[in-house]
Amino acid sequence: MNQNEKSRTIKIDIRTLAYTPKSAASIASIATTESVYDAIDYRFLFEHAYDAILLISRTGQVLGANDRAARFFGYQEEQLTQLMMNALVAGVDDDLLATIQSTICEGKYVRIKAFGILSSGDFSAIEIAVTGSGQNSENQFCCLIRNIQSGWQTEQNLNSAYHAMDNTDAGIGIVNIDGIFTYANRMMIKLLAQGNEQAVLGAHMNTWFDQKTVVDPIFAGLVSRKSWTGEQWLMTGGEKSSWLTISAVPDINSDDEPCGIVIAIRDTADKRRAEIAEQQTARNRVIMESFSSICHALGQPATVLLTSIELLRLNSGLDDTMKSEVLDLCYDAALEMREQLSKMSTRCTDTELAIRTKEV
Questions:
Q1: Which of 79, 127, 189, 195 is 20 to 30 A from 113 (CA-CA)?
Q2: What is the model's pLDDT at position 1?
Q3: pLDDT tens figures, 216-230
Q4: What is the pTM of this model?
Q5: Would you tell me which CATH number, out of the four given (3.30.9, 2.30.30, 1.10.3300, 1.10.287), belongs to the domain 272-359?
């Protein structure tokens, strides 16, 4: 290698391990044959290794870069050597460079996760392994850069999904094939064990859910790969109770095999209490309307009956014919009252039946 190029190239001694030797003798032969290493084009390896390789001075000046670095960052190679490291990697400062230098001087390396700054102004997640250059390592070091944007984006998506699931107002948990809780979000732990995580994780789901009406149907759905929805009244300790709506779906792994169950629960006790109160209010309103119609319907015959009885009681010169007419009025009024009461009884029964049917 031309010594004049040492500031722009790195000699990487790669041992030939990617082979399948036929015998132990071949291993010794390859390991001791210098001609094998002499035949390696180190310049080619340097130009095509990693997503980018940068040679950096202790002050952060880019001293050299391979072809892939130019393509990755979007610069010409001549442009890269005119930049400082902080123009290519976000967050680089003097303190970080000092830490890198001191670490490399101890014979160690530094592993950094950061964002690369492309020439377009876009950012890309990268992972950097910073090592000594082998020559003059105190004043310059080598940055082996790998593009991890896709992995970082996947990780962010998973983190977003995890935070959303952990902070939702529904209790979400995962149980394995044996029915043991392996994960429970905050709401699940709150609903089942008043926030005691240790009481939930590792416990069997039949600790809280009825075996026959909930657990067995859920696992029957797991076998047939069907979801299940139901309800259960749950006592969670002391006087605390909840009416839970439960939903369960099979957890299918990457091999398309059921590996557990995802359970979601919601406390609908307050909602049910509100519904019951609303239904009671509606029932009372209907009853009051019925009483109003009863009073109106009974008002006239009651008045006739009362007036007729008052006339008979006074007995103020009524002859037999008048008395007979008054008695007929009393009888007719009584019959009308009986008929109205019968109709109203039937109406109240029908109303109560309609309310109960609506509740169901």
A1: 79
A2: 42
A3: 888 888 888 888 888
A4: 0.52
A5: 1.10.287
